[in-house]
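Continuing the series of single-chain predictions for the mutant panel. This is the parent chain; the variants come on the following pages.
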Amino acid sequence: MYDMRNLARLKTIGASAPDAMKAFQAFDAAALADGAIPVKYKELMACAVAFTTQCPYCIEIHSKKARDLGASDPEMAEVVMVAAALRAGAAVTHGTHAFADRR
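Parent structure:
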């Protein structure tokens, strides 16, 4: 199901919804452009989000970009652990809803 070749189908989405796709691509480029946060760190942030959402396409794309920008094994490992901590934290904090008043 998850095959990088599937991304070629983005052309079909773009052809079917060109204005929305152009707007998305412009937003994506702007969000990941160099700014107050350097691009390398933005790509590491994108990796953390991708690990958290478990999107294999994003993991492959953004980890390659981060590596191309010089991300090291220790940096990538810390990103993995930050993502894991956030997912675990969300489970724990959402668990509090199971202890709501039982009237």
